[in-house]
Amino acid sequence: MLSRFMSGSVRNLEREYNCTVRLLDDTEYTCTIQRDAKGQYLFDLICHNLNLLEKDYFGIRYVDPDKQRHWLEFTKSIAKQMKSQPPFTMCLRVKFYPPDPASLKEEITRYLVFLQLKRDLYHGRLLCKTSDAAMLAAYILQAEIGDYDPGKHPEGYSSKFQFFPKHSEKLERRIADIHKTELIGQKPETSERNFLQKAQMLETYGVDPHPCKDVSGNPAFLAFTPFGFVVLQGNKRVHFLKWNEVTKLKFEGKTFHIYANQKEDKKIILTYFAPTPEACKHLWKCGVENQAFYKLEKSSQVRTVSSSNLFFKGSRFRYSGRVAKEVMEQSAKIKREPPEIHRAGLVPSRSCPSITHGPRLSSVPRTRRRAVHISIMEGLESLRDSAHSTPVRSVSHGESFIPRSRSQVADTSEGMAVISDEAYSPSDSVLPTPVAEHSMELAVSRQINGAPCSIEEEKESEASTPMHGERGDFGADSRSAQEGAGGDSALSEVEQVNKFVLSVLRLLLVTIGLLFVLLLLLIILTESDLDIAFLTDIRQTPEFEQFHYEYFCPLRRWFACKLRWVGGLLINK
Asked: How far apart are CA 190 and CA 203, in angstroms?
């Protein structure tokens, strides 16, 4: 009896595993789930824990053993997606940035987006000019510590907080001046809303950068935003395509293509090369999901997308979830008391690793975080009832639901635009597509507020497998990238030839297969005794009888003769 009980317990343990999800405030949520549980179950569990209804903008990210990042697919089993062994570690992040984050209905959702953008600002994803950077940092300071108090905030107090990878004393003084004079009396929720409004107007808002190279071998960052597809090089935005202009996304190996129709029926094709095939596939899937989310009117319009024009090759993928317009329409249906948000004291943040350029800086207090303490409702049956999403209030019913001011900016700046005073080069800790080889690292000299720096990999906040000493060095000499450009272009030519040869071979195999099927069908028509009306009618036609006696019968006799000759040789031996 005891052995049966023990064996049953072991089987139950084998069917369950632990999963840890790191939230945006750097707290951890740990749970035990069944081995066959799907991603949607875990995501609903987290949103239930946070009492989050406006959840369609968020997703769960994980890293495989090859250091390739992925978004957890909610329709598939978690265990089948994870290539590592349990326990699993993942993180909750903003997957689809709201087009107008300040208009999100609930404060808890605005707060989570605020945390994501604050993380983006620190790691260099949300890059902006110095004037905008000072204002954004001042809003964070006001939200974290409140009004300026000479008794509590001595001279140089703004330097105790890490808003960017590194910033100058001049910028710190400007941040303190704004905090002291312009933001007095603002409540934390007001400062966060103002921060969101300011951040949403930046060219790099919503950018989740994918490092690639163009056809000339120059490094570039590709990104999908609420407003369209963006390519960033240096401190400029070199391409911007609205979602209604993008017609197709395609990849093959490490090559990514984007097809678009611009004004006056101008068709363009942009081609970029990802570090690895896995990175390219991840880039393609992100593009497919973002295009479906922001472009379509209804989720019923979502179709399965193929990465190739040919049916016998390529990957197939389908976005599962609501689209942005449906999400916005559900916003007005929220009718509940807003969940309580408690502000905590100063704590160190794991999302802000130490700066490691030259001598290590002494550790200083980071920006204050708030822990969301929300009572968990008993039972999980309510997860089904709360499965609907209720994000933002509809701000317009116009094109692409872009807020009017942001839409005007997009219309007037479709060409090359300067995004900041410095080159866009986020730390590798935030890149969703890690560079496979050292030679593929971006050789862009980075300076933030007048001082070059590189950042340690964000090991704890965005990894499911250990990153053994992986650190990005984005202060590499740009000369090395130019030297490797020729070799990369030659390599790409060889890859293109190989792809062409493989395509021809695939076409040849398919043709042979079709001919074989036709031969089998011909044999059935001529030699079988199937008494089927349409077969009988075909056999009785003059054309078929002529073909049968003049071509098929001689061919059959020739094959029979050859088979007898081969059989005789085998018997004689």
From this structure: 23
